[in-house]
Amino acid sequence: METNGNTKKTIAKDQLKEMGYWDSIMDYISTFDTDFYNIYKDFLCTPYTNHIFDAKTIELIHIAINASPTNLCQSKLEMHMKNAINHGSKKEEIFEVLKLVSVLGMHTCAVGIPILVDEYNAYSNDSMPVKLNESQKEQKDQFIKKMGYWNRFRDILLVNDEPFFESYLKVLTNPWEKDIISAKLKEFIYIAIDSSTTHLFENGIRIHIRNALKYGASFEEIMEILKIVSTQGSSTFHISLPILEEALSEI
């Protein structure tokens, strides 16, 4: 069911009031299929109307999801950056979110190194020794002190390439050197990117939920993050509808 001009203005005004933004994709959906728009808008706007987080926090979480290496939805990233700024986010806060998100690439090592060790040991019929020297033990202690967790793959990485581990540690802990965003929000960002539909990194989700609880997060707050991340499926429309429109225009 398509909408007329007056109805569309009302729809846009209502969404702006509830969610603080209106974009070309929602405009397209509301014009093409009003019934579905009403259903989908209610799904998207729940975190904005629950008032568990303020709008700025919601937008920073959306930035993390859409800037994640496993997602990178440019149109939604642009939209949520503008929204975050409109809700009072500073450039430094947004950049801090991006620094937190960028380290997600290390999950290649988190998943790959244990597999490598298992397969190497099976192939060589031997067990790879992992013994840290004093310098490496110091780096391990520093990591645990700053981040509050440790996984065995890091022992192997540290023994294999100490300079690489040191550079990784500096990148990982840099956002924790300053209080530009709170420790609890940092953990919320980690939960969001680890639980994203395109990643679902269970070890990371568990570790960062545990850390968030230690920083005072409530069950309801963490549930809200998972609900926000669940709206990642809207990227389907943001990527596909402009392509559909372009294809139709060429017929």
Automatic annotation (TrEMBL):
GO MF annotations for this entry? peroxiredoxin activity
Q: Which residues form a coiled coil?
A: none
Outline the extent of the Carboxymuconolactone decarboxylase-like domain: 53-101, 165-229
Q: Which InterPro entries match?
A: AhpD-like, CMD-like
Pfam families attached to this UniProt entry:
CMD
| Name under which the protein is recorded | Carboxymuconolactone decarboxylase-like domain-containing protein
Q: Which organism is it from?
A: Cytobacillus kochii
